[in-house]
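Hey, I was hoping to borrow your eyes for a little while. For a while now I've been wondering how a particular protein folds. The fold is given in discrete form, as structure tokens running alongside the sequence. Could you read through the record and tell me how the tokens relate to the sequence? Take your time with it, there's no hurry, and the full record follows here:
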Amino acid sequence: MRRPLWSAGRAAVPCLAVLLVWGVIPAAKPGAASDLRLEGNFVQGGLVIGRAAPGSRIRLNGRPIKQRADGRFLIGFGRDAKPKAALELLHKDGTAVMRTLIIAARKYKIQRITGLAPKMVSPPASVLARIRAEGKAIRTARLADTARPLFDSGFMWPARGPISGVYGSQRILNGKPRRPHYGVDIAAPKGTPVRATAAGIVRIAEADMYYTGGTVLIDHGYGLNSVYSHLAKVAVTPGMAVAKGQVIGTVGATGRVTGAHLDWRVNLFLTRLDPALLVPPMRQSHR
């Protein structure tokens, strides 16, 4: 199930995923479906890169998917994605193609965290306006639609250290259930360099957000973005172009945390993906 989309040493070449069922509606022309390629992880939290004849109209479960000038398009499956997804294509010549995608389900861990200050579990009314404003800024940044495929650089781990939190896990804070965790936590020491997981453009660089403390969001193009939270130091500014592996800050314990670590997240617009599916196991990563 855990199949990196970019292989170590061959950063821009996706690995072919296997969890896919092909179901094709009869087409007006023979071979009409042969120009559709799908590569990635067909699993909850997975990212898939598609390619079809330029100018095609694409829908996933009835929702329009934007195709790029190079014929590519990205689709992502959230934490609770249903087991089947309907992908529809309508080519410029009127040929219609449908494929049924089989999405593998996952089992998620339950994490219990105690010792948090009460105000960090249930924020006081005095900070609600701040929380809403910061949430709106992050949402806006996640909706950025840069036309350049900067993610072609491939992905790498942004830091090294024990994995203390995984994608999809349910956290119970001071005995109160909270929303699932949508990132990977790396328990590196304070001051450890944090690097851009792929090339991109910095959209958010804040030293002190209420929940996430020092926070950086990088736009990798086509709606794909990554977020780095709880940083002790932020070393970039909004609008800055960064290369894969460039230092963007350091690990810290800012925001709502109980210890130093990096919370690393990846999104396709508003769909939250599992970052661990984009990289090889940490022992194989290169920096």
